[in-house]
Design brief:
The chain is an alpha+beta fold. It contains four helices and four strands, in the order αβαβαβαβ. The protein has a four-stranded mixed β-sheet with strand order 1-4-2-3. The longest helix is centred in the last third of the chain and has 21 residues.
Length: 151
């Protein structure tokens, strides 16, 4: 990040950290958002970012997708960023990787103007309840971050 760009976002990040609501931190009491999949998301088109094996890096294409998502997210009351991993490897490692993926996406959204106050980050590791989302390439589909808008 260039020095000028950092200075542009520093006041926003500093205020969020002082308020204790920066991504990755627990939201202020009373603002906790339930990010577990449920019927509240039924019918939503949920944006998804897919990752390569053992990676939490965003590609230039992912960044463009996240720029578009950020435009929509500015109007949400809350944004749930939910990271996942495939079933390969140890569960503890997959949980940490899922959280790193979610944080990478949250950082990008915040960088594109989404308020850190509305972002809740979750890493759920392996697919929810052991379910997989893909067909033939199901493990690739499981290496994902979903962005859910709660209005």
């Amino acid at each position: 990040m260039s020095g000028t760009r950092f200075l542009q976002f520093f006041p926003i990040l500093a205020l969020a950290m002082l308020a204790g609501t920066a991504h990755g931190a627990e939201p202020a009491q009373g603002t906790e958002v339930d990010c577990t999949p449920s019927e509240q998301y039924a019918g939503q088109s949920i944006p998804v970012i897919l990752f390569p094996v053992d990676s939490d890096r965003l590609s230039p294409k992912d960044m463009e997708t996240l720029r578009t998502i950020a435009r929509r997210a500015r109007y949400a009351f809350s944004v749930c960023v939910i990271g996942q991993s495939d079933k390969q490897g140890r569960s503890a490692y997959n949980n940490a990787l899922a959280l790193r993926r979610a944080r990478a996406v949250a950082d990008a959204l915040i960088g594109f103007g989404v308020s850190p106050r509305v972002v809740t980050v979750r890493g759920v590791g392996e697919p929810f309840g052991g379910l997989t989302f893909g067909g033939a390439d199901k493990e690739r589909q499981d290496r994902r971050v979903s962005v859910v808008f709660v209005r």
